[in-house]
Amino acid sequence: MLTVFAAIIYDSTKDASFLKLNTNLKSYSISLRTEIEDELDDNSSLDLKKLSSIRSKGLIGERFQLFNKEGGVIIKDSILSKIPVPNLSKVLNESFEMDRQKIDHRKYHILWSKFETESDSVYILETAASVKDVFDELDRLFYLFLIIIPAGLIITGIAAYFISKAAFKPIAQMSNTAKKISGKNLDKRLELPIAKDEVRALGETLNEMIERIDEAFKSQKRFVANASHEIRTPLTVIQTELEILEKRLNDNESKESIKNALSEIEDLTKLTNSLLTIAKLDSSHTKLNLSVVRIDELLADCAQALNSAALKKNIQINLSIDDAVEIKADKEKLKSVFLNLIDNAIKYSFPHTSVTINIEQVANDKVKIRVENAGPGISPAEIPYIFNRFYRSNEIRAELNGSGLGLAIAKEIVELHRGEIKVESKAGERTSFNVILSTNL
Ligand SMILES: Nc1ncnc2c1ncn2[C@@H]1O[C@H](COP(=O)(O)OP(=O)(O)OP(=O)(O)O)[C@@H](O)[C@H]1O
Ligand SMILES: [Mg+2]
After folding, report:
1. Which of 99, 103, 108, 414 has the least C-beta neighbours within 10 A?
2. CA separation for the pair 165, 153 (Å, rounded)
3. pLDDT of 204-231, one tens digit each?
4. pLDDT of residue 71
5. 130 lines ligand 1 (CB under 6 A)
6. Which band of pLDDT confidence, cut at 50, 70 and 90, is reported for residue 95?
């Protein structure tokens, strides 16, 4: 558009300049003609000096020649004589004839005009003016456009970039925050632009939507927490009653049934406890009860607590920790992490193997606790899912009890401690879980 606009301006300037030049040339010709007529009418000889001194405003390099009607030169000009005499009959018929000619690398506009003296003699006056000025002016205009158009485009481009960036900034900010919002931080809200425009209205609508989702999530979590809490008490009562009943009964078959019922209740209690733990971790006010924890002792306690389960499968728990290692952590929560990991290590081990637990200092302020077992392992396809709530491997689901919440709880607790939990597994051989924790939280 700029180029078209420039071309239109260039073209109209060119037309106007030539029109002006031709008008000036005509008035020059008329002035000369009047003077020549006067001199010829006075029968005096033509005063060349006087004629040469006649100038016209707005012309440069103006010059003239005078011919009689047969084309014979009366006043000769050294430059104009280099071009042929015009078509006399045409000039004599039309009185004015205009042309553009190049003489000695210079362009001239030339005007031939016929006039008659009182003595009826016919003359032809040839006047010319250089068009250099017009072309110089047009060249200046051309070079100006050559600079202005690209510069204009660049400046417009840069300005458009910054303006659009500023205009889209609130949208970009909102989109960045929206990307960070997940089920874990639904209390976060989009930052709204100050201007009361459509973007702000959209942000407000999205914030209201997040508010509703947050409320729905909270009510669901409250339900899980309340339900698990309510189930725990009757479960304990049933368990106690069944244990009393088991002791009282003499009949082996009935004792076996009660044992089975008790085992189911044990699983149900474990599930209820896991659900309650998850619900507590989900509540936004989960705070860590920090203290200095001897992690070597804590691991020994966990191993001790699960030793009888290990013995049932002829599994030995090897605790290769020599030194006392202290870290700042929530002791109870951390205990449930390692109880879950060691429980898994025993549960998913081949019988007659061993579970190894060790601690390694990985940086000045970081320790890595590794729980390793020999077992069927976890296939690479399953690894991305094992920390998901309720995820259990299909082969294991049928054979072993469990809810699939242990690793999800462990991961959440480790992350609350700003630590990391990673798994390495070789299918059919071994699995190891590595927990990296800061010693100074
Ligand atoms: N040491 C391990 N070796 C092999 N597979 C494992 C191991 N630890 C975990 N897994 C796999 O990860 C899944 C999830 O483990 P997670 O502890 O969350 O649940 P679970 O043990 O099945 O149930 P629970 O809630 O009682 O712990 C398990 O079902 C199992 O398939
Ligand atoms: Mg488990």
Report:
1. 99
2. 18
3. 999 999 999 999 988 988 898 899 989 9
4. 86
5. no
6. confident
Query: Does 405 contact ligand 1 (Cβ within 6 A)?
Result: yes
The protein residue with its alpha carbon nearest to ligand 1, atom 7, reads 344
- Ligand 1: which of 339, 340, 342, 344 to mutate, most ligand atoms within 8 Å of CB? 344
Residues with Cβ–ion distance below 5 A, ligand 2: 344, 406
CATH of domain 198-282: 1.10.287.130
Contact by Cβ (8 Å): 10, 141: yes
CATH classification (class only), 2-139: alpha beta
Cβ-based neighbours of 47, under 8 Å, separated by 6 or more: 39
Predicted pLDDT at 397: 66
Q: How far is the CA of 290 from the centre of ligand 2 (A)?
A: 25
Classify domain 290-438 at the CATH superfamily level: Histidine kinase-like ATPase, C-terminal domain (3.30.565.10)
Here the contacts of 151-156 (C-beta below 8 Å, separation 24 or greater) are: 152/2, 153/2
Between the CA of residue 174 and those of 185, 206, 208, 383, what are the distances in Å?
15, 10, 14, 33
Say whether pTM exceeds 0.90: no
Ranges of each domain in the chain: 2-139, 198-282, 290-438
Answer whether 293 contacts ligand 1 (Cβ < 6 A).
no
Tell me how far the alpha carbon of residue 235 lies from the centroid of ligand 2, in angstroms. Answer: 21
